[in-house]
Amino acid sequence: MPARPTEELLESIYASKRALHAAHRALSLPEKVRQVMELQRIDYAMRLQRGETPEWWQHPWEPDE
After folding, report:
1. Is residue 41 part of a domain?
2. Residue 64 domain-assigned?
3. Tens digit of pLDDT for each residue in 7-52?
4. Total domain count for the chain?
5. Would you state the pLDDT for residue 57?
6. What is the 3-class SS of 47-65, one letter each residue?
7. What's the gap between Cα 60 and its chain centre?
8. What is the distance between the alpha carbons of residues 44 and 40, in angstroms, rounded to a whole number?
């Protein structure tokens, strides 16, 4: 059975996660949308490489600017 992580390690991990979440909360809405759209494009490319045929609603979209 693997050893349990130390309290110092756990606190370090949680502190890092808190900092990351704070940074994400500080982003503007357009930047958050840009990130989601980029992740959709990455997901779509991965699905195509695996030979999947995505449904029409799984295709990435480009917003009207």
Report:
1. yes
2. no
3. 999 999 999 999 999 999 999 999 999 999 999 999 999 999 999 9
4. 1
5. 87
6. HHHCCCCCCHHHCCCCCCC
7. 15
8. 6
